[in-house]
Structures are given as structure tokens and as C-alpha cells.
Amino acid sequence: MAQLNGSLYIIQNAELHRFDPVGGTDQVVNSDDWSGPTVMTAMANHLYIVQGDELWKFDNVNTGSYHSLGGGWSGATSIAQLDGWLYVVQGDALWRADPNSGGYAFLGSDWGGPTVMVGLR
């Protein structure tokens, strides 16, 4: 689950939903098969989802359009955003990923085990 522009984005029954917590309304944003997503975060009007091996970027949550930022993310357990970067824990490694190109840098190991991560400034 992630929040973006006052809505909650939730994957339920393999579909991406937008939930308005004030009005209580639910809308399917994308009905492609999103079964088995690992982690999700939001940043700068975009959603980022790791599903299986792929990191996906939603270009427009209103239309449901998205594209892959690349593979190699199998086993990701946490994702967060901070200062324009994505941070992903995968196995025991912490990675920083570019939210536009998908390029990434290894930041260190011994991070195995976390199931939740958030970036605050």
C-alpha cells in the first residue's frame, strides 16, 4: 500500500485500486495481473512497484499507464523514497535506485530482515 495525492493505492485481487479515505470510494486503476507484488511506494506523482523481478513505474495513475525500469529485483522486501531516490532492501543488501532510469547503486549489506521502511525528511 502507498499514499499519493490524498488517495491510498492498494493491490487487491491482483488489481491496482485507488481508495479515497475521505469519501470511502474505491476505483480500479489498472486491472493487469498484479498478483504477487513485493513492495510499493510513491514519489512525485508516480507509483513504484516491485513485482517478481521487475521494478515498475506508473507514469500516470489516472490512466494506469506504466513501464519497466528493469529487472533484477527478485526478493525485495522493502522500498522507500527519500530526496528523489528510491531505496530498496533486497536480501541483505540496501540499494539506491534512480526513479527515472532504473539505474542503481549498492549501499551496503547486513540489511536482511526488515519488512517495512519509510523515508522522512
Would you spell out the secondary-structure blueprint of this structure?
Layout: E1 2-4, E2 7-12, E3 15-19, E4 26-30, E5 37-43, E6 46-51, E7 54-60, E8 65-68, E9 76-82, E10 85-90, E11 93-97, E12 104-108
What's a quick, concise take on this entry?
By secondary structure, the protein is mainly β. Helix content is 0%, strand content 55%.
Order of helices and strands: EEEEEEEEEEEE
Given helix and strand content, the structural type is mainly beta
- CATH domain class name: Mainly Beta
* Named CATH topology: Neuraminidase
Sheet with the most strands: spatial strand order? 1-2-3-4
* Beta-strand share of residues: over 45%
What integer is the average pLDDT?
92
**Separation, N- and C-terminal Cα atoms:** 20 Å
- Number of domains in the coordinates? 1
Q: Tally the helices: what do you get? A: 0
Poorly predicted runs are none
How would you sum up the global shape? Answer: globular
Tally of DSSP β-strands: 12
Helicity level: under 10%
- CATH architecture label: 6 Propeller
How is the main sheet built? 4 strands, antiparallel
CATH superfamily: TolB, C-terminal domain
Give the radius of gyration.
14 Å
